[in-house]
Amino acid sequence: MSQSEGGSEGGSRARIVSLTLDERTMVRRNADIEHERKVAIFDLLEENHFALIGAPGAPDAAGATGAAGPYALRLGIEENRLIFDISSAEGAPLGRIGLALSPFRRVVRDYFQVCESYFQAIKTASPSRIEAIDMGRRGVHNDGSQLLVERLAGKIELDLDTARRLFTLICVLHIRT
Predict the structure, then answer these.
(1) Three-state SS at 132
(2) 97-104: long-range contacts, CB 8 A cutoff, minimum separation 24
(3) Which of 6, 23, 76, 153: CA 20 to 30 A from 41?
């Protein structure tokens, strides 16, 4: 089963306008994780910068500007790899990029741990304790986002906000049976 949501097509062509998560390996998520997923998808589709490097009209490795988008993106995990299936908004295949999951494992595990602490804290902890945990959560999230930008360098051009939202979705994909 997969989940797909579309966004507005206004503005830059170097953007994701449709996103599908391949959720075949996933189990039911709790309300907190489901909320994080929905917010990440909504925010990503509202505002993002994403361009497949080397696609016709897209930026090249030297950073020449242009955009082949808008793009439809399918994110999934196959054979221990994070898969970015990229198509035009009309569905024409543009590229498939696979990244090894091993570099992400530690940061995803750390992110889950700090999120669990955060969700528990918001029920009973003091505002200062919640704020401290949230700062830690944002720090780990930034680490994962930066790792994603680094791993996609030369393949996909994206900004840090887009990377942050994609990292959240990568974490959601890691929830398995």
Answers:
(1) helix
(2) 97/152, 97/155, 97/156, 99/151, 99/152, 101/77, 103/147, 103/151, 104/144, 104/147, 104/148, 104/170
(3) 153
For 30-59, what is the mean pLDDT? 83
Tokens standing for residue 155: 């393949």
Q: What is the pLDDT of residues 112-169, one digit of tens each?
A: 899 889 889 999 999 999 999 999 999 999 999 999 999 999 999 999 999 999 999 9
User: Phi/psi at 143 (nearest 5 deg)?
Assistant: -60, -45
Q: Which residue has the tokens 């797909």?
A: 4
| Length of the chain measured in residues | 177
Cα dihedral 13, 14, 19, 22 in deg (nearest 10):
140
Largest CA distance in the chain: 53
CA atoms 111, 117, 123, 124: torsion sign: negative
Domain count, the chain: 1
- Could you tell me which residues come within 8 angstroms of residue 158 by beta carbon, excluding any fewer than 6 positions away? 48, 49, 50, 51, 149, 152, 166
Residue 63 has pLDDT above 70, yes or no: no
Q: Do 96 and 85 touch, CB atoms closer than 8 A?
A: yes
Q: Which domain holds residue 140?
A: 2-173
